[in-house]
UniProtKB/TrEMBL annotation:
UniProt domain Aldehyde dehydrogenase: residue ranges: 7-460
Source organism of the structure: Kistimonas scapharcae
Keyword Oxidoreductase tagged: yes
Pfam families for the chain: Aldedh
Keywords: Oxidoreductase
UniProt KW Oxidoreductase keyword: yes
Ranges that cross the membrane: none
Name under which the protein is recorded: Aldehyde dehydrogenase
Family as reported in the entry's similarity comment: Belongs to the aldehyde dehydrogenase family.
InterPro entries associated with the record: Ald_DH/histidinol_DH, Ald_DH_C, Ald_DH_N, Aldehyde_DH_dom, Aldehyde_DH_NAD(P)
Length: 465
């Protein structure tokens, strides 16, 4: 008999208790998978367009209930209202709309080339659903990741088991939204629990797993899935570089660095975590950036004036402190910030750091906080080489008026996405594929590739009788 574990969920800032959850038992997991497998059989009766029509009901519900949803997101994450609305709610609306408009075309059966040696025959490709897929999510974008993965998987014809992070389960909210369509409610299930629950869900043999989270957990999951040969797409974080050449508009580009490094208090896998500035504008750029960092208001989301919200997880705050202290002790200059602020101990000041060397944790490990180490460079070749020497490769940005140069650098960077003269924009466009390389993971979410990742292609060759 498995011991049921209770999980206490608290307000991210005040730590006042919100509710308790019971870890899902092995028996419950098995019953859930049986229900999802049966729901998948039912789903096969519907066309892609019909499933999109159901997702439209969810989209409408999110739009109509945006204030209530934003309040729940802020409560459990401590993020600002701007972060909740822009990156979570608007991001979901954009994504669902794009999927509804494009999935029927992307998932359509195709007739493809038949060679002369097979003359008279016809070749077709069907994009079939996988079955029951498992989605495991982290705490930094608990709404965006939940809704986009669940709905894309459903549109592609799968039933879905979704496990939110135990830190931000938003208990009941996702189910309430899914109620907008009885068909979706029947095919998409939310399960609560910790890593123990996640392991039970994997053991139930989903047809594919979509994991977003830390490298360490991703590795554990991949090992467990490998034993059962379950395919897995993983998105594991980053150490994204922003590369600024000498010909940029400094005001506009520093504003980009502020947004890139500090949105969601830096708790984004695509946060700018390394800023490379050309030697000839370095001093001016850093002075302007410091002024912008100093002008930011760090506060709770419901205070209205907040630019930077809380650090959701205490263990994450410890990592931020450790990285900054390590840099300080090895000779880095903390130009501004570098400490916790506020009475609750949940906020960290926007922190700008120079004189960072390769041996510092800040230079190589993911910090996932409102910190920005700045490096100098003098040539295009040098910045490509040094910035590519990262264990990670999720996304990057290149800033220059010379678009040929920006494109050349974008092509040379080892990562999954590059924004040119802007930052973190690629993942804001649901038509673009999202995902990384190296330790940032593999597989692509969003775009046509993201939808096709929820399918298995079947080859058909038709001959005459
Ligand atoms: P993060 O700190 O980014 O949330 P984690 O990797 O710790 O990163 O957690 C991401 C998700 O993975 C959470 O939903 C967590 O419960 C889940 N998880 C934890 N342990 C495992 C495991 N062994 N296998 C699969 N998922 C796990």
């Amino acid at each position: 008999m498995n011991q049921a574990v209770a999980i206490n969920v608290n307000d991210a800032i005040t730590e006042s208790p919100l509710y308790n959850l019971q870890e899902t038992s092995e028996e419950q997991v098995n019953a859930l998978f049986a229900a999802c497998r049966s729901a998948h059989q039912d789903l096969r009766k519907y066309t892609v367009a019909e499933r999109c029509h159901e997702v439209h009901k969810v989209l409408d519900y999110v739009l109509q209930n945006r204030d209530h949803i934003a309040a729940r997101i802020c409560e459990e994450t401590g993020k600002t209202l701007t972060d909740a609305v822009v990156s979570e709610i608007l991001g979901v609306l954009d994504n669902l709309e794009w999927n509804i408009d494009n999935a029927p075309k992307i998932l359509k059966d195709q007739t493809v080339h038949t060679p002369i040696t097979l003359m008279g025959k016809k070749s077709r490709v069907y994009h079939e659903s996988l079955g029951t897929v498992l989605v495991i999510a982290p705490w930094n974008y608990p709404f965006h990741i939940a809704m986009t993965f669940m709905m894309s998987a459903f549109i592609a014809g799968n039933s879905v088991v979704f496990k939110p992070s135990e830190l931000t389960p938003m208990q009941g909210l996702l189910e309430e939204i899914l109620e907008a369509s009885p068909l979706i409610r029947n095919s998409v299930k939310v399960v609560y629990g910790t890593g123990v629950t996640a392991q039970r869900l994997v053991a139930a043999r989903p047809d594919k797993i979509f994991f977003t989270g830390s490298c360490a957990t991703g590795r554990k999951l991949l090992k467990q899935a490998a034993d059962m040969l379950i395919p897995v797409d993983v998105e594991l974080g980053g150490k994204d570089q922003m590369i600024v050449f000498e010909d940029v508009n400094i005001k506009r580009t520093t504003a980009g660095a502020v947004w890139g490094a500090l949105t969601n208090a830096g708790q984004s896998c695509t946060s700018v975590e390394r800023l490379y500035v050309h030697d000839s504008i370095y001093d001016e750029f850093v002075t302007e950036l410091k002024a912008q960092f100093d002008a930011l208001v760090v506060n709770a989301g419901d205070k209205g004036d907040a630019d930077i919200g809380a650090i959701t997880a205490d263990f994450q705050l410890d990592i931020i402190k450790r990285h900054v202290e390590d840099a300080r002790s090895k000779g880095a200059t903390i130009l501004t910030g570098g400490m916790v602020t506020g009475d609750q101990g949940k906020f960290y000041l926007p922190t700008l750091i120079t004189d960072v060397t390769d041996d510092m944790l800040l230079a190589s490990e993911e910090t996932f906080g409102p910190t920005l180490p700045v490096f100098r460079f003098s040539t295009e070749k040098e910045v490509i080489e040094t910035s590519n020497q990262s264990e990670f490769g999720l996304s990057a940005s290149v800033w220059s008026k010379d678009l040929d140069r920006a494109d050349r650098v974008a092509r040379a960077l080892v990562c999954g996405a590059v924004s040119i003269n802007n930052v973190m924009l690629t993942e804001g466009n649901p038509a673009l594929p999202f995902g990384g390389t190296r330790s940032s993971g593999f597989g692509r979410a969003k775009g046509a590739e993201g939808l096709l990742a929820f399918t298995r292609s079947k080859a058909i060759l038709i001959d005459k009788q």
